[in-house]
Write the structure tokens for this entry.
Amino acid sequence: MSIDSEHISQSSFKMPRAPPHVYSCFVINRTQNPIECTVHYDGRPNEDKFNEDVHVIILENGEQFFSRRLFQPDLPDSYCKWVKIITSIKVKKQNGKILELHYPFDHVHGPIRNWEFHVCDHDDILSKPSTRPANLLKYEGLDEYER
């Protein structure tokens, strides 16, 4: 193989894109009434046993942080930790209207923590990049070996 053909084959290689996973988030209630919120985390693909729903009530103009969730599916054979992925946000407003967002979320282009979802008066949930410095919560949920 000549150098030119090797160069051509290497230059046509494209790195696969990182998945647009959200690992932790803030749900921000921009309305004047409390909302019921459910965040769904997916564990391992094609298995429901590691999935998790977190239900909370968020007061008017309040917010709730949904932290990163870890799980170890293959104990005691493997000590590998997996990170759950947030795949849906469901909100029930005081008027009974239900709003939902599902993975993939708008504007998420790669794996990220501390994403923001803004629940608005005009019956919408906006998917937005974090307005907080990323390092504030960089080490949340890590054990002594992960830091």
Q: What stands out?
A: The mean pLDDT is 87.
